[in-house]
Amino acid sequence: MSMLRTIKPKNARVKRALDKREPQLVENEKTAIFVRGQSTSDIVRNVMKDLYALKRPNAINFSRKNDIHPFEDTSSLEFFANKNDSSLFVTGLHSKKRPNNLVFTRMFDGRVLDMIELGVDDFRGMDEFDSPKSSVGVRPLMVFHSDLFDVHPKYQAIKSHLLDFYNGHALTEIPLIGGIEHVISITAGPLLNSEDNLEDEKNLPKIHFRVYTLKLISSGNSGFKIPKIQLTEMGPSIDLSIRRIQEPDEEMLKLSNKRPKLDKSKIESGLGKKKKNIETDNMGDKIGKLHLEKQDLSKMQGRKMKGLKIRPNQKLTSVNDIVIDE
Questions:
Q1: In this structure, are 283 and 178 located in the same domain?
Q2: Is omega for the bond preceding 190 within 30 degrees of 0, making it cis?
Q3: How much helix, strand and coil, in percent to the nearest 5, is found in the chain?
Q4: φ, ψ for residue 256 (rounded to 5)?
Q5: Does the model's pTM come out above 0.90?
Q6: 237-246 and 141-145 as β-strands: parallel, antiparallel, unpaired?
Q7: 4 HSE (CA, 13 A, CB side)
Q8: Same domain for 317 and 240
């Protein structure tokens, strides 16, 4: 039984609005809502302010306090998500048991998909760095330092959240012209002891969140066209510790990763699932591969060329049997 809700549109305007919320082949920028709980600290508010600045303009900041506890009751988040057409949340909380608390939440179909709770251990804001800042709305280059982001389930979930939050995509090469002004570096570690058991939450390494502005400078070599890259820390600088993680429901996760069906014309043009031996390059040109049968050299016409002339009464069985006239 499908978990997706079905809403019957009353008119054409409602139908167009619902179609925009349907899964898209090329997803639009996801909107994130920053909401404060009843009790917050100055550190939490400042962290949320800088994360909001990095996410703009696809971000909504709620200035009022809300009686909200994501791990206990998700009804408020679902209400805000449906009202503002948002699928990402950052909730700031503070208590004696969990001081300086941040909860990252992802939604699917108006309901909570998964959540990650992180504690802020150390923080330096953008205002503390005397350096140029990136422009609003520019997508960052994201770098993850540590094998834990590929092998450990909790760090894999954090990597997925952050990539989804800043709409990151995997790149094989760095574009040097336009589009990149700052780099978000996320590092896990170091391990306090190589013998520590990572299944114990107390032994999990901290996550270091750093942001740098990127500047291209001349390499100093006229024959070397690729410039050097200079990084300058612009902030924020945040050290985070992992607290709680709510994993997604298997059926809901499967539905959230399902891709919409495509027309035959779109598939052949290179979108969606690629057709066998047909692909589209970066310029939009269609490239195909042809597989031919093995060539039979015994039927090759070589008598018209002196160098490939076949001797009388000589049977050609392989390439090695060809006699070349000097």
A1: no
A2: yes
A3: 25, 25, 50
A4: -70, -25
A5: no
A6: unpaired
A7: 12
A8: no
